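Narrative of activities, Objective 1.

The group set out to show that a structural description can be obtained from nothing but a protein's sequence at a throughput compatible with the screening campaign. Below is one input-output pair from the validation batch, recorded exactly as produced.
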Amino acid sequence: MSVDIARRARLTGLYLTLITLAVIFSGPLGWLILTSLKAPDELSVFPIQLFPETPQWHNYLDALTFIDFLGYARNSLILATISSVLTTVSSAWMAYGFARLSAPGKKFWFGLLISTMMMPSIITLIPTYLMFAKLGFVDTYIPWILWGLCGAAFMVFLFRQFFAGIPKELEEAAILDGCGHVRIFWKIFMPQSGPILAACMVLTFTASWGDFVAPSLLLSDDTTTLAVRMTAGYVNEQGFPIQNLLAAGSTMFILPVLLMFLFFQRFFVQGFSTSGLK
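Output recorded for this entry:
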């Protein structure tokens, strides 16, 4: 009896800790939503007013019309889709080579690839812009296509760890049936990689959707993304930000990524939990 009481006490403490942490981590999102429902004069009162007196639901409609929200969201969706699909497929293909093919120096090149994750992206910012400018790719979506075709080191690592755990008997049986490496990759390895595919899609889509540096550097005002446009779009005649509209736009901005994560949550967690198994 005492063992059951102690076990229930531990579980209760664990659940209370998890609930507390969940409230703390969701606090900024809750504050953002509350701010999006406030009137302009409620944003500057002191002491701070937590809840709006009357929720201003029209702030969301105003945020959609104050800037071309849907148009810039379309640009973000195009870039994020291109980046996530190409990066996932190219990373999986490179990981297949590292996991299953034999070649001189394979371990060296894989270690070199993984070491690039420690390089700050700011180092390559200016060389990247100069290269794309000389090639005439500025104000186009070609850089995102090229980045996607080159894959991502972390995604290659995840796929490589997962592919290394697939039994070799499946591959050998496919080779005996006359399958080449391309067909083995698409028919055997990719169908079994659902959790890793979901994890990579969510990570790459989120990174591209919320990216501010690359679009502001390479795209014009008409072709830029929603993340860039929102930073300077919600301002009044004096140039000051309209906080309630900015909060409403930010809430709608994170909604697609949040829904995507919730939809792929089970596969997302499973992908990380199985990527280290061999």
